[in-house]
Amino acid sequence: MRYILHDPKILRHAMDHPGRGTSYSIRELAKAVGLSHHALIGHLLTGERDGCDEGTAEAIAEAVGVSVRVLFAPPASLDQNEAIRGQVSKTNGEPPPLKKETT
Questions:
Q1: Is 9 helix (H, G, I), strand (E, B) or coil?
Q2: Element (H, E) at 82
Q3: What's the rounded Cα separation, in Å, for the pair 59 and 80?
Q4: Domain for residue 29, yes or no?
Q5: What is the value of pTM for the model shown?
Q6: In the chain, how many domains are there?
Q7: Structural domain includes residue 67
Q8: Is the pLDDT of residue 20 over 60?
Q9: How would you class 91 by CB atoms within 10 Å of its CB: exposed for 0-12, middle for 13-18, buried for 19 or more?
Q10: pLDDT value for 78
Q11: Is residue 98 situated within a structural domain?
Q12: What is the distance between the alpha carbons of residues 46 and 73, in angstroms, rounded to a whole number?
């Protein structure tokens, strides 16, 4: 599942002010996260990539000392996606009708 970075500026701030006290460079964070190369961190900071897999997102957040949701938006749940697809298929591809409020 893919986690989307909220804002590269938030990641940069977390790297500059991590819970450990000493700021991270791109290479240092990549090493702390266990990445074989630093490109992903650089791409997240420049906006060239907008997200990463769940394990990497959690490792980045843990390394800088914040909750994963501070940095990343998790994917929509599969249950929500299935419910939406089910509603659309029941209406022949059209969105489900709005329910009228009764008073």
A1: helix
A2: helix 78-90
A3: 26
A4: yes
A5: 0.73
A6: 1
A7: yes
A8: yes
A9: exposed
A10: 54
A11: no
A12: 18
